[in-house]
Amino acid sequence: MSFDKISKQLVGDTPGRITELNYFRIGPEDAAKKVYLQAALHADEQPGILVLHHLLQLLRDADAAGELKAEFVVFPMVNPLGMSDIEFGQHQGRYNRSTGINHNRGWPALYDAIGSELAASLGSEAGENIDLVRSALRSWVKNLPQVTALDQWRRCIMQEACDADYVFDVHCADDSLVHIFTIPQLAENMQQLANWTGAAATLTAEDSGGGSFDEVWPALWLRLAREYPDKPLPLPVVSCTLEFRGQFDTFDDLNRRDAQNLYGYFQEQSLITGKVIGHKGEAPAPSDLRATERLRAPQAGLLAYCVDLGDQVVEGDRIADLIRLDGEGAFVERIPLLAGTSGQVISRMITKYVWRGANIAKIVGTEILESSGNYLLSD
Predict the structure, then answer these.
(1) 115 with 232, same domain?
(2) Same domain, 20 and 114
(3) Concatenated DSSP letters of 93-136
């Protein structure tokens, strides 16, 4: 049993800049399973920090009672670099300032890194193949360059996630219901998570186009299985992005219940024993992410929503009006923004002043949208 706080220093790119990265390792060191959780990869998304704060208390109590059957590695605030991104009294935190890259985009394609070197080593026993791949992955991550603070940060969290059996990246959206992003191969397990967390939608895509943190881990195993079909290569990692509502939904009682429900899911996975806590409901079945419309603003304006979160709409329904702010119809004309599909509204913009191309709502439908393209994420 253990409940260890670990601190790593990230050396900054300019004089005098040192950033502290804290995380926790909880549970038996010889556990057969490892669970990795992180929150605030997008540093401006704080509900997950409070959810994991409450989860830590539950895990500490379970560890003391000998009820943890897995090792839990928890980064309650995984991106301290992004937490420092405050300008003119406003916290940003979604993009790296030096590169302009979204913190949850462009994570490495792991098969390209280690896939070809495994060909001569893979055998006929699935467990041995899993150990072999994870050993190669750990070695590759360990030898990643550490030139910049961003390099150091990415290597540190990848070292902890690379051999985990569960990788949960906790986020939130603007103004949103709980929802999950995952791959279709994990739909059955994610249905259990959705039931526990009360997710309004579980959205599946094998490759959403952005190299997001949760996708790169299963992507390695799926590619290996395709490249080496004669070798037993199961999918040994359950990975997802778990969106706990919107940016303003950081409330003690609410996020405590979220933590209890997440704990209940882990109990159902036989990773924690003891008295079952949390409440399990019945969530909608997973759906293809390509059936979710990202409704965008055709020009700048002020939003006036006509729908609430959770509303069911049909194609052609008015989702919002966009009040013109310039041109001939400025401050008089209202431009109706109409649903391009039928389904449930699961997210809206917090800010009501929007610009051309801004993603103003997500509508979860059932019909694949030809307009979805290959990049299925918000910016």
Answers:
(1) yes
(2) yes
(3) -SB-TTT--BTTS----HHHHHTGGGTTT--S-HHHHHHHHHHH
User: How many other C-beta atoms lie within 10 A of the C-beta of residue 241?
Assistant: 22
The answer as to whether 379 is a domain residue is no
Cβ-Cβ contacts under 8 Å for 230 (sequence gap 6 or more): none
The answer for residues whose C-beta is within 8 angstroms of residue 228's C-beta and 6 or more apart is: 118, 119, 122
Domain that holds residue 353: 289-372
The tokens for 312 are 């069911």
Average pLDDT along the chain: 96
Question: How would you classify residue 308: left for phi > 0, otherwise alpha for psi between -120 and 50, otherwise beta?
Answer: beta
pLDDT band at 377 (very low <50, low <70, confident <90, very high): confident
Query: How many distinct structural domains can be found in the chain?
Result: 2
Instruction: Residue 208: name the closest of 48, 369, 372 by CA.
Output: 372
Residue that finishes a domain, picked among 258, 285, 312: 285
Domain shared by 366 and 263, yes or no? no
Strand extents, DSSP E, 27-83:
33-39, 70-75
> What pTM, to 2 d.p., does this model score?
0.97
Instruction: Give the Cα separation of 286 and 267 in Å (integer).
Output: 22
Place of tokens 């079945």: 285
